[in-house]
């Protein structure tokens, strides 16, 4: 099913190609301009795909420059925050010994500030130092074939805890050698925000930007609102609800456990890991969508709610999040829970 001028959103994978149908961009990579004069750009970044749609007349000669600026921006974000690039800014910090002050860029400072704040808000259920667990369970750069032992998990848990990382005016510092930061739950959202800022600086105000299922919209598509369809966590890919991104809430991020997992001899491990236990989250919460004023925070909150599981609705209400949460009903159906703020802004289906 294709929705005109909309995005059919799949809940994101971690560092894996995202399977999405983007009606307003078309499928595949490369550039094109449709009869509706929507300029489309797409490519790959952060282990997934990016798409940019600009509702404006663009001279053919300007396409190459716009694409180059987009690619350069994404390279900069990746070079700063990737854990897959050995000499990225974040990887260099992760490799440092304890008590070594590490000066950082403004971009990394922005993301670390938000990540540490949300880690504290959730009392560590969302934790940006989860990298050792991500690697242990095989969701990092190095794949593994065997489920971690309880002993390995216990040892790794000693390396996890946002309180082990301090951010001050001079940079980052950690108090143990093995502590490592993973920003995959927030970096895509930041990258989307950066692309939006780039387009604004180039003079475009009507656009939709997406990286791996994280979205920011601005203005309209020729006087029609940009629309995003939220998918049910089911094999037949039914649509749960169509959202019009307009006004102040134009950023959207989703997270889910129902497609990204590893099977260890019949035992399934989902990619959302609980920093409190060291194990994959076991919860009836299957998927979350958060809408906000910027994509960086929406991205992180979506992951935080997935980790919180059955506590997610209470957290969303307490912190006034615009959240749509899809739970398993314990049988073959779903129960959709909307936060009060979401209902005020977008209603419920």
Task: Summarize the model shown.
The protein is of the alpha+beta class and 349 residues long. The chain has nine helices and 17 strands. The chain has a nine-stranded antiparallel β-sheet. A four-stranded mixed β-sheet has the order 2-1-10-11, with no helix packed on it.
Can you give keywords for this protein?
349 residues, alpha+beta, nine-stranded antiparallel beta sheet, four-stranded mixed beta sheet, 9 helices, 17 strands, globular, disordered N terminus
What does this structure look like?
The strands form 4 sheets. A 9-stranded antiparallel β-sheet has the order 3-4-5-8-9-12-15-16-17. It has a 4-stranded mixed β-sheet with strand order 2-1-10-11, with no helix packed on it. The N terminus is likely disordered. Helix 3 packs parallel to helix 7 and helix 6 packs antiparallel against helix 7. By secondary structure, it is of the alpha+beta class. The radius of gyration is 20 Å and the shape is globular.
Stretches with pLDDT under 50, minimum 5 residues: 1-35
Query: What spatial form do the alpha-carbon principal axes imply?
Result: globular
Distance between the termini: 19 Å
Count of strand segments:
17
Topology, pairings included?
Blueprint: E1 6-9, E2 21-22, E3 32-33, E4 38-45, E5 48-55, H1 60-81, H2 89-95, H3 106-121, H4 131-136, H5 150-157, E6 165-168, E7 171-174, H6 187-201, E8 207-211, E9 214-218, E10 226-231, E11 239-245, E12 251-256, E13 261-264, E14 267-270, E15 285-292, H7 295-308, H8 312-318, E16 322-328, E17 334-338, H9 340-346
Parallel strand pairs: 1-10
Antiparallel strand pairs: 1-2, 3-4, 4-5, 5-8, 6-7, 8-9, 9-12, 10-11, 12-15, 13-14, 15-16, 16-17
Helix pairs in contact: 1-6, 3-7, 6-7, 7-8
